[in-house]
Amino acid sequence: MSWTPEREEKLRELWKKGHSGSQIASILGNTTRNAVIGKVFRLKLASRITSKKLEGKKSTEKNNSPETKTQKLGRKARFKALLLDRNFEQENPKKFEELTDKTCRWPIGHPYEEKFYFCGRKPMEKFPYCKLHLLYAFQPKNAKEEDLITEEDIPKFIEKKIKSA
After folding, report:
1. Do 46 and 87 sit in the same domain of this protein?
2. Can you list the pairs that 7-10 forms with residues at least 24 positions away whose Cβ atoms lie under 8 Å?
3. What predicted TM-score, i.e. pTM, was given to this entire model?
4. 40 lies in the same domain as 109
5. How far is the C-alpha of 28 from the C-alpha of 13, rounded, in Å?
6. Domain that includes residue 123, residue range
7. Is the dihedral of CA 80, 86, 92, 93 positive or negative?
8. How many CA atoms lie within 13 A of 102 on its CB side?
9. Are 15 and 38 in contact, with CB atoms under 8 Å apart?
10. For the ranges 7-16, 73-82, 139-148, which has the lowest average pLDDT?
11. CA distance 154 to 144
12. In contact, 35 and 41? CB cutoff 8 Å
């Protein structure tokens, strides 16, 4: 297949109308999409008319107000943030008989011990545990090494809080 002046003129005309490379190839016949795109490049024809997809993306980008992207916190970071939060609710020890749907049901200690009780904080919606105990209870399948909590990660002044939990 050779590019004759007539075929080149037809290519220029179809390209200006906005036909795709594959459409032009089928109209011209006996050529491929890649051959058409290569010839367009060599002829240095003007860039394509912006497609509807691109126009839609540009308009949505302009209309949106600039968002601040927040970085997702790892499990360890969420744990620290929760424990260091001044507004974090204190434990409200409850006996088994005092448990309701409005109390955290995380057991503290061992049932055979004298000081055994349940957390008693307000639970998260649709869960039986508070924020702190949800972090303990629902761990990801493949916990990342950075998310594993070690003794050195626990600030000394809240060590008692964690060990009792």
Report:
1. no
2. 8/39, 8/43
3. 0.39
4. no
5. 12
6. 75-164
7. positive
8. 0
9. no
10. 139-148
11. 18
12. no
